[in-house]
């Protein structure tokens, strides 16, 4: 995950990698965050806790929809979590 966030009025660049274990249930994925690797360029570190940044042991029940030939949206309860580009 790479991008910028605003937390408590301050802007941060984030750069993280996630190991996610998942199982497929119908047309949804049940996923659990196994580990987080925070890159040295990540400015937020461990201190920023916002909904959009997954934490270890966090659970997701998600659905992946293809938007076009290169983009996918990952949603949870019809709310977008991420947009991924292939």
Automatic annotation (TrEMBL):
It comes from the Bacteria. This is Uncharacterized protein. It comes from Providencia heimbachae ATCC 35613.
């Amino acid at each position: 995950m790479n991008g910028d966030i605003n937390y408590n009025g301050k802007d941060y660049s984030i750069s993280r990698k996630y190991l996610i274990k998942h199982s497929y249930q119908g047309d949804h994925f049940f996923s659990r965050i196994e580990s987080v690797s925070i890159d040295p360029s990540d400015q937020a570190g461990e201190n920023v806790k916002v909904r959009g940044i997954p934490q270890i042991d966090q659970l997701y029940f998600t659905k992946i929809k293809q938007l076009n030939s290169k983009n996918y949206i990952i949603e949870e309860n019809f709310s977008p979590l991420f947009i991924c580009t292939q």
